[in-house]
Amino acid sequence: MLESFEKTEIISKSQYTEELNKLRTQLIDAQYEFKKYKRPMIVILTGLDGAGKGELVNFMADIMDTRLIETSTFWQETDEERERPYYFRFWNAMPVGGKLGIYFNGWYEKTIRRALDNNDDPVAFAKGLEEAADFEKMLALDGTVIVKVWAHITKKEQKKRHEKLIKKEKHSEEITKRALWYFSKYEKITECAEAAYKATHNEFAPWEVIDCTDRRTREIRFLRIILDGMNRALQETLPKSSTENLSKLTFPNVLDSLKQDKETDQKVYRKELDELVEEIKPLTWEAYQKGISTMIVFEGWDAAGKGGCIRRLLRAFDMRLSKVTSIAAPSSEELSRHYLWRFWRHVPRAGHIAIFDRSWYGRVLVERLENITPPSDWFRGYSEINSFEKHLSDRGVLLLKFFLHITDEEQLARFKERQEIPWKQHKITDEDWRNREKNDQYKDAYNEMFFKTSTKYAPWSIIPANDKKGARIEVLKNVQVNLKRILGK
Predict the structure, then answer these.
(1) 272 shares a domain with 182
(2) DSSP 3-state assignment of 230?
(3) Which of 65, 205, 271, 353 is the most buried if burial means most Cβ atoms within 10 Å?
(4) Using one digit for the tens of pLDDT, what is the confidence trace for 45-98?
């Protein structure tokens, strides 16, 4: 298939100069207009060894404003990256809205390299491409401009360039060895590239193939691709998602069927709590030594006791291993990227523990109920959240999701208590009372959330929490059981 892109087209020097002068002005104008755009543009630049990918980017830097460009290579994974899911490194490198990010090889590097080194089985290769396509679609529907460029040359041209490079670097055995290795894999690399093209070339993230035989031709073609990508965003011609009217759908009413327990005896509570804390402590250190990360999510009604559960958990977790993140309204920096970006940044290193007071589920809860996010975006959130959690699970992260449920009457009693007790008054706000007026709507949203995001790899644990002490014990027991399970005990 790639043979069809092999052209001997050569731009004359005069044509090149004329076109370059036009593109120089158009690109600068587009860059400064794109600076106002809400999302970044990401260019995946990959292709055959010796095609001149580095030269293309250096050339582009001479033409455009480099203050609005970020380049990421993704060569060797750092220790920090290896301890997290594979896509963490790409989220972490994501530019702020209005900037252009150049990703050398991008998320295709691992899938193709694994196929070259290990003759990867077709199922694993297909899965890698499927994950890439899902990731690109998710970003594109959120407004990120995704363009993928394959820098191509014929095998004959690659051989000529490698021979020239080896002669130039005749004292470098490493360069010689590397060039020969890539030349020996030419057919396999192009085979993988064709498979990637067929599986992931679509409206969300199109592939552009550049014949890099002629320097002037490839430079003009590359600049046109960059310009076209920015213009598609500025002219609002990027693909958009749509959502059907789902208001008539109902979901299993999990919350109303939940039985609330009687209040736990104080002495029993103290004894069980102390025992659980002492049992969990060594488990967390064993998980640390084995490089097993833990992420714990707390969602639930206002005043359901999330903070109290977290404080008791922290007694069992060494503060050197754990971190609590309280999720509030996103900052301007976070708003300029896909909403999952800020949560990927909090994925813990191997062996560490991340606790979330509220979480990425705000997309399908508060953002939905407060009309902060359009229906097409929050509805898409369910599948995006499931994909995020699948990446965590595949990496071996222990993900625990707790929802603390209290009855409407219990919530009202706790609100009044917070108003009356001086040291609790900071916990109650006008917004809490306003949210309470939407309790029926929130209940529907919670039930839909359970139905769509309680998966085999990341199930929801719904905790009856009218009894605060009983809820805390239940959470700690759940953590203990799951730590033992993942440790093989």
Answers:
(1) no
(2) helix
(3) 353
(4) 999 999 999 999 999 999 999 999 999 999 889 999 999 999 999 999 999 999
Q: What one-letter code names the amino acid at 237?
A: T
Q: Which residues pair with 47 in a beta bridge?
A: 151
- pLDDT value of residue 245: 54
What string of DSSP letters covers 103-151? EESTTHHHHHHHHHHH---HHHHHHHHHHHHHHHHHHHHTT-EEEEEEE
Measured over the CA atoms of residue 385, residue 386, residue 388 and residue 392, the dihedral's sign is positive
Tokens 């490079």 belong to which residue?
Answer: 165
Residues of the chain with pLDDT under 70: 8, 119, 169-171, 243-248
pLDDT of residue 171: 59
CATH number at residue 323: 3.40.50.300
C-alpha 257: how far from chain center: 34
**Predicted TM-score (pTM) of this structure:** 0.92
User: What's the CA gap between 382 and 390, in Å, rounded?
Assistant: 12
Cα–Cα distance, 122 to 461 (Å, whole number): 36
- What's the burial of 39, exposed, middle or buried (CB within 10 Å: 0-12/13-18/19+)? buried
**Residue 170: per-residue pLDDT:** 63
Indicate whether 128 and 224 sit together in one domain. Answer: yes
**Domain ranges, residue 288:** 266-487
Sign of the CA dihedral running 325, 329, 334, 339:
positive
The answer to whether residue 243 is domain-embedded is: no
The C-alpha atoms of residue 345 and residue 176 are separated, in whole angstroms, by: 39
Residues 24 and 104 in one domain: yes
Residue 64 makes CB contacts below 8 A (sequence gap 6+) with 27, 28, 31, 100, 226
The b/e string for 125-163 (b: 16+ C-beta within 10 A; e otherwise) is: beebbebbbbbbbbbbbbbbbbbbbbbbbbeebbeebbe
Q: How are beta strands 100-104 and 353-357 bridged, if at all?
A: unpaired
One domain for residues 310 and 427 = yes
**Rounded Cα distance, 23 and 219, in Å:** 11
The answer to whether residue 14 is domain-embedded is: yes
Give the count of domains, the chain: 2
Instruction: Give yes or no for a contact between 355 and 298, defined as CB atoms under 8 angstroms apart.
Output: yes
169 and 217 in a single domain? The answer is: yes
Q: How far apart are CA 482 and CA 487, in angstroms?
A: 8
